């Protein structure tokens, strides 16, 4: 079910799998606050730590001479779920665009996909999966964005390897497998917000084992929310928790600052912030991101409820344990500032790397 575009102005260049390239591709086609990260195949903890995750993607590298496109006729879409966006991979080198759109366009309620992608989704809404794939690969906008990130020309003579991508998403209470070489989406199993990643990963593990037995190279990728925004929100939470704990202790145990030598810990905190370049840059970035989220009241309601529950639980504990929580919040904040600095470094490397 896959073919190559003709050479010349309508060809898709070879795009090597890379987190920076995929992240920039999302931005170039209009998706806002989206990031793509590679994950170790069997690392469930890494997947959980990257939440919120919009979708998972596996990418399989095949030798062109041995590649056989297989279609599973049982993987047809249910008529009651034809609102799922799904396109066939009709051009080998457009594998990344197919994989990303199969995630982005099925998460348009939680991702700002931008006008271009929204128009494309609406325009192709009633198309077959094959027509969606053909429309995608014939799009000058998508092809130009893709090719601007690649230095490799896509020709039958130069390409000895091809990539095949499969996306996994949560939609309408189920995990779906979106394999562009099949006729339609495959419903894998029922799920909820808490367990969908486990359901998807179980299937991915079986898939990867099968491909590895065939000596094929497989990689796992996550389409996630921009980590800078995630860390910024977490810092807003930490600042709120710190303030609430201080108010509680000031009210109920006024000498607490002396008991744990707060001036010492505050000085240690300031010293670490000033000596660690990543922390300093992270704090500056945090300040710049206050235009995104300024206060606790602007956090998602579920996050506010989680923090309130945490504070209610801790307010019933021994005061010594609450003091320990205050100290832990200080350490957590330093790590979050450093993480922000790391994300800024990654962004700068992505933007500076030539195609």
TrEMBL record:
Family indicated by similarity: Belongs to the peptidase C12 family.
Positions of the UCH catalytic domain: 11-225
GO cellular component, one term: cytoplasm
Keyword Lipid biosynthesis: no
Broad enzyme group: hydrolase
E.C. designation(s): 3.4.19.12
Listed name of the protein: ubiquitinyl hydrolase 1
Assigned keywords, A-Z: Hydrolase, Protease, Thiol protease, Ubl conjugation pathway
Biological process per Gene Ontology, one example term: protein deubiquitination
Superkingdom of origin organism: Eukaryota
Reaction(s) catalysed by this chain's protein: Thiol-dependent hydrolysis of ester, thioester, amide, peptide and isopeptide bonds formed by the C-terminal Gly of ubiquitin (a 76-residue protein attached to proteins as an intracellular targeting signal)
GO molecular function: cysteine-type deubiquitinase activity
């Amino acid at each position: 079910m896959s073919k190559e575009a003709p050479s010349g102005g309508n060809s898709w260049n070879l795009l090597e799998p890379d987190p920076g390239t995929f992240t920039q591709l999302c931005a170039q086609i209009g998706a806002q606050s989206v990031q793509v990260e590679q994950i170790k195949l069997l690392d469930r903890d890494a997947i959980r730590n990257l939440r919120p995750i919009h979708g998972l993607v596996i990418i399989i590298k095949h030798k062109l001479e041995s590649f056989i496109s297989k279609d599973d006729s049982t993987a047809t879409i249910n008529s009651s779920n034809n609102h799922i966006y799904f396109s066939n991979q009709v051009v080998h080198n457009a594998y990344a665009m197919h994989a990303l759109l199969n995630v982005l366009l099925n998460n348009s309620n939680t991702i700002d996909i931008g006008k271009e992608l929204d128009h494309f989704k609406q325009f192709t809404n009633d198309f077959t999966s094959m027509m969606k794939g053909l429309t995608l690969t014939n799009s000058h906008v998508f092809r130009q964005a893709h090719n601007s990130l690649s230095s490799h020309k896509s020709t039958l003579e130069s390409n000895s390897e091809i990539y095949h991508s499969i996306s996994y998403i949560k939609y309408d209470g189920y995990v779906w497998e979106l394999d562009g070489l099949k006729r339609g989406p495959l419903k894998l199993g029922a799920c909820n917000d808490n367990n969908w990643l486990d359901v998807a990963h179980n299937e991915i593990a079986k898939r990867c084992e099968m491909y590895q037995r065939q000596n094929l190279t497989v990689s796992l990728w996550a389409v996630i929310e921009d980590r800078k925004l995630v860390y910024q929100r977490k810092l807003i939470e930490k600042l709120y928790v710190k303030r609430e704990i201080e108010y509680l202790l000031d009210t109920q145990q006024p000498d607490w600052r002396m008991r744990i030598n707060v001036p010492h810990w505050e000085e240690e905190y300031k010293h670490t912030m000033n000596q660690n370049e990543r922390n300093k840059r992270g704090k500056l970035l945090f300040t710049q991101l206050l235009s995104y989220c300024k206060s606790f009241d602007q956090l998602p309601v579920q996050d506010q409820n989680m923090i309130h529950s945490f504070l209610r639980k801790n307010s019933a504990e021994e005061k010594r344990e609450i003091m320990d929580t205050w100290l832990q919040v200080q350490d957590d904040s330093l790590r979050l500032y450093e993480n922000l600095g790391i994300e800024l470094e990654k962004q700068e490397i992505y933007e500076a790397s030539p195609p």
